[in-house]
């Protein structure tokens, strides 16, 4: 297949691109706007591959989409503004990318009769105290991020029902692994712990997330692309649930940092207490997660420890002012050089 992967310079899409090129022999065209979260470095090892092409452009830009989609058999849409805290501070881009962008991609798929796969999130269901969400659970998103993702999912469903577009949706739980931008819980805590910076836990830290390793989610998306039924939604949840504070304590142990770095800070507005997904439908297609949180987290800490080349430009750039705005404090003043040993 020749796949148009939108937003694949980001965390999950870049893992998906690698797996499809290297394990499935697909051709891959990446269309990405390269926002603060999109990084060509994430695709660095794929650039020499004969089946790989990269185009810089926004999914809400019809001309950019027209140029990228030529000759493709399917569109997989990863492109999104993805951070809940940023959606609370500045929701504008979330509406444009999630809603307008998805609409433009759906139109491009409809004109050509292409297979379409929307990458979505468990957050569209809202928070659940007990049990797990199925694909039939109502959508009750809490944040501007999850509300705009839910809006996009509903548009995708409407293109199947109204126009017969062969479109499916795959909703993942919280992903972690290498190449994740350090605004998200796990990489933020790893890098702060390695630098001796405070570890800011929102509220009581007892919020629970259902963690999935990024390669497991990428494989679930591939499974839905190949074997999923058009018009269907598929949940892909990870094998382990964990309270935030336990994740942070484990990172403290793995990095050798001091537990006194943990600080409980003001809670996130509208903070969802717990996410949990039932994944029976995608399991029936032959998918199962392979990576347990205990091992995956240790591997992720090792990756960040060994790949300062990847995160140094982030930590010494615009991320610093984002961090100050979000946390009301600065990171350690002098960024380490890539050659300096970490503690
Ligand atoms: P990310 O923030 O790492 O990457 C998003 C990518 O989209 C970046 O490369 C960015 O440049 C690109 N992008 C943003 N706006 C764009 C636009 N208008 N046009 C083109 N490209 C644009 O995100 P991620 O964590 O890799 O998430 C990928 C997808 O998976 C998203 O749709 C997200 O909602 C979904 N998802 C994420 C998680 C998670 O835990 N990270 C869990 C479930 C689902
Ligand atoms: P995050 O990685 O932003 O993912 P999401 O909000 O999509 O679940 O956050 C995961 C959990 O960690 C969430 O409950 C919020 C919490 N959190 C903190 O306690 N401190 C932080 O600095 C961040 C970024 C998140």
What does this structure look like?
- The protein is α/β, with parallel strands linked by helices.
- It has 12 helices and 12 strands.
- The chain has helices at 11-23, 62-69, 84-89, 92-112, 144-163, 185-195, 214-227, 244-255, 280-283, 293-306, 308-315, 319-327; strands spanning 2-6, 27-32, 52-56, 74-77, 115-121, 167-172, 174-176, 199-202, 208-213, 233-236, 240-243, 262-265.
- The strands form 3 sheets. A 7-stranded parallel sheet has the order 3-2-1-4-5-6-10, with helices on both faces. Strands 7-9-11 form a 3-stranded mixed sheet.
- Strand 5, helix 5 and strand 6 form a beta-alpha-beta unit.
- Helix 4 (92-112) packs parallel to helix 5 (144-163) and helix 6 (185-195) packs parallel to helix 8.
- It is globular and about 55 Å long.
- The mean pLDDT is 96.
- Bound molecules: nicotinamide-adenine-dinucleotide and thymidine-5'-diphosphate.
Annotate the secondary structure layout.
Layout: E1 2-6, H1 11-23, E2 27-32, E3 52-56, H2 62-69, E4 74-77, H3 84-89, H4 92-112, E5 115-121, H5 144-163, E6 167-172, E7 174-176, H6 185-195, E8 199-202, E9 208-213, H7 214-227, E10 233-236, E11 240-243, H8 244-255, E12 262-265, H9 280-283, H10 293-306, H11 308-315, H12 319-327
Parallel strand pairs: 1-2, 1-4, 2-3, 4-5, 5-6, 6-10, 7-9, 8-12
Antiparallel strand pairs: 9-11
Helix pairs in contact: 1-7, 4-5, 6-8, 6-10
Nicotinamide-adenine-dinucleotide is lined by residues 6-7, 9-13, 32-35, 37-38, 58-60, 78-82, 97, 101, 119, 121, 149, 172, 174-175, 181.
């Amino acid at each position: 297949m020749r796949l148009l992967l939108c937003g694949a310079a980001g965390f999950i899409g870049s893992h998906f691109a690698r797996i499809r090129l290297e394990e499935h022999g697909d051709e891959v065209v990446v269309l990405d706007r390269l926002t603060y979260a999109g990084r060509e470095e994430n695709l660095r090892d794929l650039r020499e591959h004969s089946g790989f092409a990269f185009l810089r452009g926004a999914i809400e830009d019809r001309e950019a989409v027209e140029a990228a989609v030529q000759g493709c058999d399917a569109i997989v849409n990863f492109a999104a503004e993805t951070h809940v805290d940023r959606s609370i501070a500045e929701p504008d881009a979330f509406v444009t990318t999630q809603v307008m962008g998805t609409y433009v991609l759906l139109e491009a798929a409809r004109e050509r009769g292409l297979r379409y796969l929307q990458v979505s999130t468990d957050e569209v269901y809202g928070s659940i105290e007990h049990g797990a969400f199925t694909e039939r659970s109502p959508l009750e998103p809490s944040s501007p991020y999850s509300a705009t993702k839910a809006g996009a999912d509903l548009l995708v469903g409407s293109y199947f029902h109204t126009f017969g577009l062969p479109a499916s949706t795959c909703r993942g739980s919280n992903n972690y692994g290498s190449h994740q931008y350090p605004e998200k819980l796990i990489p933020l805590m790893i890098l702060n712990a390695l630098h001796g910076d405070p570890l800011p836990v929102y509220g009581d830290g007892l919020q629970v997330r259902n963690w999935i390793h990024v390669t497991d989610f990428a494989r679930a998306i591939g499974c839905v692309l190949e074997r999923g039924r058009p018009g269907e939604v598929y949940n892909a949840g990870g094998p382990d649930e964990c309270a935030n504070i336990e994740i942070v304590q484990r990172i403290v142990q793995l990095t050798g940092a001091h537990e006194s770095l943990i600080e409980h800070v003001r809670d996130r507005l509208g903070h969802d207490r717990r996410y949990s997904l039932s994944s029976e439908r995608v399991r029936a297609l032959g998918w199962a997660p392979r990576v347990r949180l205990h091992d995956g987290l240790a591997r992720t800490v090792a990756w960040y420890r060994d790949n300062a080349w990847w995160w140094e430009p982030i930590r010494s750039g615009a991320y610093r002012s984002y961090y100050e705005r979000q946390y009301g404090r600065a990171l350690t003043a002098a960024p380490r050089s890539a050659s300096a040993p970490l503690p």
